[in-house]
Amino acid sequence: MSKPLNTSSSKRPGLSTDNVLDRVPLFSILSRQNRERILRNLSETRYGKKDLIFREGEPSEYFHIVKEGMVKCVKSTPDGKECTLKMLMPGDLFCCDAAAFDGARHPGTAQPMGNVSILRMHKSAYFDMLKRNPDAAIEVIKHLANRLHEAQEQNKILALDRADQRLAALLVDLGARSGIQERGGLRLPMRLTRQDMANMVGATMETVIRIMSRFKRDHLVSGTANRLMILDVDRLKTLASR
């Protein structure tokens, strides 16, 4: 079973929670009245780096939202290795809204990348709201259709784009979502190993090592897994779009 930090128990979220919901499509589409009802059904829990928020294969009973910190979703391979599916930032809903809707089990394990604060709500509370609000239900259908389109586009990218284009696009995305501007570049605030990057772009680790070495020679990035710096975002964007 996954468990929260022993030093902090679940609590009702603070006022800033409403701002977090603005970044979550399944919640931002709601009317003020329905959002207030949802807020009453949210709880907040803190987790540490060694905790698990949920495990792959557990029932998907709750919607989870990152309020503070970062989380990665990983999936186990048949040979026991872990494959990083995505990095999650504040405002991200995970893993995953589709599983919660169709009653499937979690497709991956949610691991904090440090101390995190997670909002969660039982899916029955959200479904009850949708039953009372057909317009919101239609918006949810549109949202899920968009997610399907995004997945199809991602599959097309993995099939057609070169590995260096995919890696450049990943770095640009992570920089836009979480980068910290410092002297000389944009620092990524998470530990990002070559294996993590390989998993997320559909390449081998050896390929990612070669590409990252080239990116460093070309002064596009610098640093290590613990402190990766993006030196030239514009050139990475150009490479990703070729």
Descriptive notes:
- Residues 5-15 have low confidence and may be disordered.
- The protein has a 4-stranded antiparallel beta sheet with strand order 1-7-2-5. A 4-stranded antiparallel beta sheet has the order 8-9-11-10. The chain has a 3-stranded antiparallel beta sheet with strand order 4-3-6.
- Helix 7 (163-178) packs across helix 8 (194-201).
- It is globular and about 55 Å long.
- It has 2 domains: 17-136, Jelly Rolls (Sandwich); 159-241, Arc Repressor Mutant, subunit A, CATH 1.10.10.
- A hairpin with a 5-residue loop joins strand 3 (71-76) and strand 4 (82-88).
- The chain has 10 helices and 11 strands.
- It is an alpha+beta fold and 242 residues long.
- The protein has helices at residues 17-21, 25-28, 32-40, 97-102, 123-132, 134-160, 163-178, 194-201, 205-217, 233-241, and strands at residues 43-47, 62-68, 71-76, 82-88, 93-94, 109-112, 116-122, 180-182, 185-188, 221-224, 227-230.
Features:
242 residues; alpha+beta; Jelly Rolls; Arc Repressor Mutant, subunit A; 2 domains; four-stranded antiparallel β-sheet; 10 helices; 11 strands; 22% strand
Domains, number? 2
Low-confidence stretches: 5-15
Estimate percent helicity. 40-55%
Strand content: 15-25%
Q: Determine the N-to-C terminus distance.
A: 45 Å
Q: How many whole angstroms does the radius of gyration measure?
A: 19 Å
Mean pLDDT: 83
CATH homologous superfamily (4th level) name of the largest domain: Jelly Rolls
What count of helical segments does DSSP give?
10
Total strands: the figure is 11
Give the overall shape: globular
CATH architecture of the largest domain: Sandwich
What do we call the CATH topology of the largest domain? Answer: Jelly Rolls
Question: Which secondary-structure class do the elements indicate?
Answer: alpha+beta
User: Largest sheet, order of strands side by side?
Assistant: 1-7-2-5
What is the CATH class name of the largest domain?
Answer: Mainly Beta
Oligomer: single chain
